[in-house]
Specification:
185 residues, alpha+beta, Aminopeptidase, 8-stranded mixed beta sheet, 5 helices, Acyl_CoA_acyltransferase
């Protein structure tokens, strides 16, 4: 049975990283990332207007976890676990079909250091081994080549290219869907 219900939030560790639960103390770091046009260039979501929107967003993350709907981690370096540098997590969980969509973002100061790769490897393993997902999907902006290459590096394959399926800021945008099937299924 697929479940995202845990008695305690699952904290994950890698060689350099700790993947932990979002906290309201992360609001400023998350606000800075969600309003940074470099970070958000290919993340077609409305930008938060103020810190209160981000605090509400964090509360929804936590509620989503408590309700077993999603599971999102803060990415932090082990040497500074309180400082959020990014996030990775599962959303849009399709329990009936054992699928979840993975998403990630990282502050530009930490780009090209293998951090997202390290966080993805650990969160994918958790999704398959602990959550028992059959498929992990990712939805990217077709212009986001860095994300595409990251997904391919981790074994994802392109499943679909949707033409103008997403409306954002007065334009219809294309989407690419990538998928990774649990090798043990």
């Amino acid at each position: 049975m697929l479940t995202l219900n845990f008695t305690k939030f699952p904290i994950l560790e890698t060689e350099r990283l700790i993947l932990r639960e979002h906290d309201l103390a992360d609001a400023e770091a998350l606000f800075a990332m969600r309003t940074n046009e470099t970070v958000m260039k290919y993340i077609d979501r409305e930008r938060p207007k103020d810190i209160f929107e981000i605090k509400d967003f964090i509360s929804r993350f936590r509620n989503g976890y408590e309700n077993g709907d999603n599971l999102a981690w803060v990415i932090a370096l082990k040497e500074n676990p309180k400082q959020m540098i990014g996030s990775v997590g599962y959303w849009r969980t399709d329990f009936a079909n054992h699928r979840a969509e993975i998403g990630y973002m990282l502050h530009p100061d930490y780009w090209r250091k293998g951090i997202i790769s390290e966080a993805l490897k650990k969160s994918i393993a958790f999704g398959f081994e602990v959550v028992n997902l059959h498929t992990i999907s990712a939805n990217i902006n077709v212009e986001n080549d860095a994300s595409r290459q990251m997904l391919i590096k981790h074994g994802f394959v392109k499943e679909a290219h949707f033409k103008q399926d997403y409306y954002f800021k007065g334009k219809f945008l294309d989407s690419e869907i990538y998928g990774l099937i649990n090798p043990d299924h």
